[in-house]
């Protein structure tokens, strides 16, 4: 018996109903992409909502997994991203763009690690665990970026992070998003 099982992360299904911008190396965010209402109760000047969407399918024969495929995408969510017009500038926008680029970096790492998974009956669990691990790593890196740059205020650290992320993206260029 041949059976194909489709599993798509529930986040992916929800996100398809709201507008998204897929990461593309030739597209740079503009303030027009930030459509959410600004949070007046925070000192933050801007917030970038970005994330990794993930889905996979598994093909089974005689209750044995024989193959799997996956889809991994980097998205920016305009309706959940915002900025305070009176305080925003090009420097802050570059900081927000780098948040989106960091998400793309972890999408590439995710694709690379998926490519290392061997087909087995445990593949579903492995993919879910890997997804959780990547999201934790992404969150830690985003927080570290904000902390070390003092939310873009430390210009020297901001420049260092821009160089670091650009180099890391280059190293994993064969896994880049092409949406």
From TrEMBL:
Q: Output the InterPro entries linked to this UniProt entry.
A: DUF922
**Protein origin, superkingdom:** Bacteria
Q: What is the recorded name of this protein?
A: DUF922 domain-containing protein
Q: Which organism is it from?
A: Flavivirga aquimarina
């Amino acid at each position: 018996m041949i059976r194909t099982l489709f599993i798509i992360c529930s986040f992916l299904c929800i996100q398809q109903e709201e507008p998204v911008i897929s990461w593309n190396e030739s597209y740079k965010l503009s303030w027009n992409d930030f459509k959410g209402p600004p949070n007046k109760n925070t000192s933050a000047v801007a917030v970038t909502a970005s994330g990794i969407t993930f889905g996979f399918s598994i093909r089974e024969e005689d209750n044995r997994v024989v193959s799997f495929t996956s889809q991994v995408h980097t998205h920016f969510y305009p309706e959940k991203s915002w900025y305070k017009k009176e305080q925003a500038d090009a420097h802050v926008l570059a900081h927000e763009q780098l948040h989106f680029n960091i998400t793309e970096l972890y999408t590439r790492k995710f694709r690379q690690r998926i490519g290392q998974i061997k087909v087995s009956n445990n593949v579903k669990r492995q993919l879910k665990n890997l997804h959780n691990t990547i999201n934790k790593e992404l969150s830690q890196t985003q927080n570290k970026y904000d902390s070390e740059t003092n939310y873009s205020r430390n210009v020297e650290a901001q420049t260092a992070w821009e160089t670091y992320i650009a180099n890391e993206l280059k190293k994993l260029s064969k896994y880049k998003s092409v949406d």
